[in-house]
Specification:
- This protein is mostly helical.
- The protein has a domain of about 30 residues.
């Protein structure tokens, strides 16, 4: 029984799994933050392009043709 307790105390597999879990969690948070920041910036770029296009391109008519 004593040898089993000593072996359990020396076993580091659980600690390694927890460390990998923490690393994966931190990487996930970093990816979420980066994607959110890029998404916000990208949205601002598309809005600016849309505004400029609306001011340059005149409104197109109804598209009725002659028959």
């Amino acid at each position: 029984m004593k040898s089993q307790i000593i072996r359990f105390m020396k076993d580091e597999e659980g600690a390694t799994a927890i460390e990998y879990g923490l690393i994966a969690g931190l990487i996930s948070v970093a990816i979420i933050v980066a994607v959110t920041a890029v998404g916000t910036d990208l949205s601002a770029v598309f809005n600016a392009i849309s505004t400029k296009l609306k001011s340059v391109v005149p409104a197109v008519g109804g598209g009725g043709g002659s028959t």
